[in-house]
Design goal:
about 90 residues, mainly alpha
Length: about 90
């Protein structure tokens, strides 16, 4: 399992108490019994951990799947790795 998916599964099971057997790429966040507040908290936790700008409304929607969320984070991480460091 890659680091993004591993962290997402850990977060879902430990912080949000989702049953480990129900977490797979096709599982929608709403199907994991995460209410809207929990989904937004999940997105904020992922933003803080990975340092990527997720969209609170789009990425915390009940129909977003675990796989889609992980793919989005991976895409944002890849994009940020390709951008030149502008701090110099």
């Amino acid at each position: 399992m890659n680091p993004v998916r591993e962290h997402l599964v850990t977060l879902l099971t430990e912080k949000f108490e989702a049953p480990p057997g129900s977490i797979h790429d096709d599982a929608a966040l709403g199907d994991l019994d995460l209410d809207s507040l929990a989904r937004v908290e999940l997105v904020f936790s992922l933003q803080d951990h990975w340092g990527v700008p997720l969209d609170d409304d789009r990425d915390s929607a009940a129909e977003v799947t675990v796989g889609q969320l992980a793919d989005r984070i991976e895409s944002l991480l890849a994009r940020s790795a390709q951008e030149p460091d502008r701090s110099e």
